[in-house]
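Aim 2 progress update. The chain analyzed this quarter is reproduced below.
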Amino acid sequence: MFPIKPFKIGLSTELISELTKVYGCRSLDVSADGTTIVYESYSGLHTEIFTIKTDGSDRRKLTVDSPGNNRFPRFSPDGKRIVYTAIDENTVAHIVIMDTDGKNREILTSETDRLDREPSFSPDGQFIVFTGSSDWYDHYYR
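Predicted structure tokens:
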């Protein structure tokens, strides 16, 4: 298996830069001001949400020792919040929002018979869309 590492490429220069030596980074999203990347990565047995500056500095773990996995992080358009999927120890997936420092977490969905995942903000930040599965079919919610 190949290690998954975060890279960035300058579109005007085509210069490729490795951001960090951390392995297992997925679901990357860049803040609107272009200074920060949010991503999921393994931390022990579970995936957690991290941020790192686009120059590769200041790596921070935002979710701490969660009982399950945290996946699919996305920045709000104003860069002040992050929405993501939290999968608990019973494999129930919820949509969660938090500040970019990991504080003020709020569970937005609490369905136990639906797997809510892959959230994304609208361009104006007024709503979040996500995929929910409950009957072997994907449904899209707002």
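Residues 24-141 form a domain with the Neuraminidase fold (CATH 2.120.10.30). The chain has a mean pLDDT of 81. These observations will guide the mutagenesis experiments scheduled for the next reporting period.
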